[in-house]
Design brief:
The protein is built from two helices and six strands. With 103 residues, it is α+β, with helices and mostly antiparallel strands. It has a six-stranded mixed beta sheet with strand order 5-1-2-3-4-6.
């Protein structure tokens, strides 16, 4: 097995618009700037997005760091949410909290 495989795989996402799903079911969108030996990711122009039924909300975060151990998947994307209704972030977070133990 090639030991450098994960490193080469993450290199595919550098300087590209990506979506990252974390173990706690949060979605982050932004431009992947860098990663380290633990696959922690620096994400620039980051936005956290919440989804519930036909609704979505977003919170702009700027430059963030995501721990590699929390990442479930990463993919290249150009998001469009035209079929969903955009609502206030705090409103949707509270609505999700009523039906789940995530927040």
């Amino acid at each position: 097995m090639d030991v450098d495989y994960p490193t080469r795989e993450y290199e595919l996402y550098l300087n590209k618009n990506v979506v990252i799903l974390l173990k706690d079911e949060r979605y982050f969108y932004g431009i992947m700037n860098s990663f380290d030996q633990y696959n922690s990711i620096a994400l620039n122009f980051a936005t956290e997005r919440l989804f519930y039924e036909n609704l979505f909300a977003e919170k702009r975060l700027g430059l963030i760091s995501l721990r590699g151990e929390s990442v479930i998947f990463i993919g290249i994307c150009n998001p469009t949410f035209s079929s969903l209704k955009k609502v206030d972030y705090d409103f949707l977070k509270a609505k999700i909290a009523k039906t789940s133990n995530l927040y």
